[in-house]
Design goal:
The chain has 96 residues and is an alpha+beta fold. It has a single domain (3-84), classed as Alpha-Beta Plaits. It has helices spanning 3-6, 14-19, 35-46, 90-93; strands at residues 7-10, 24-29, 50-58, 62-65, 68-71, 75-82. The strands form 2 sheets. It has a 4-stranded antiparallel β-sheet. It has a two-stranded antiparallel ribbon with strand order 4-5.
């Protein structure tokens, strides 16, 4: 798997904004990616040093529209903490 295939998109929410100053970042990642693959991908794509990664899996919610029933897609979210001596990710700098 390519590094750019592992990281799908950043999560931009109120909770993730509060972590930017502490070098905590949140990403939606490929559901099949492991913690070590996510760590290597973040280090390669953004040129930073990763301290730790926490990962959570989310099941898609069941939604109804009239009598038809569907499901939102499932996803995996990765919380990335950078080391103290690492530089910040430039993409998030303009947001904080």
């Amino acid at each position: 798997m390519n590094s750019y295939d592992i990281i799908i998109k950043p999560v931009l929410s109120e909770k993730s904004y509060s972590g930017i100053s502490l070098k905590d970042y949140t990403f939606i990642v490929n559901a099949k990616a492991t913690k070590t693959e996510i760590k290597k991908a973040v280090e390669e794509v953004f040129n930073v040093k990763v301290d730790r990664i926490n990962v959570t899996n989310y099941d898609g919610k069941v939604k109804r529209m009239g009598r038809t029933e569907g499901r939102r897609s499932s996803f995996k979210k990765a919380y990335v903490k950078l080391t103290a001596d690492s530089k910040a990710i430039e993409f998030f700098e303009s947001l904080s």
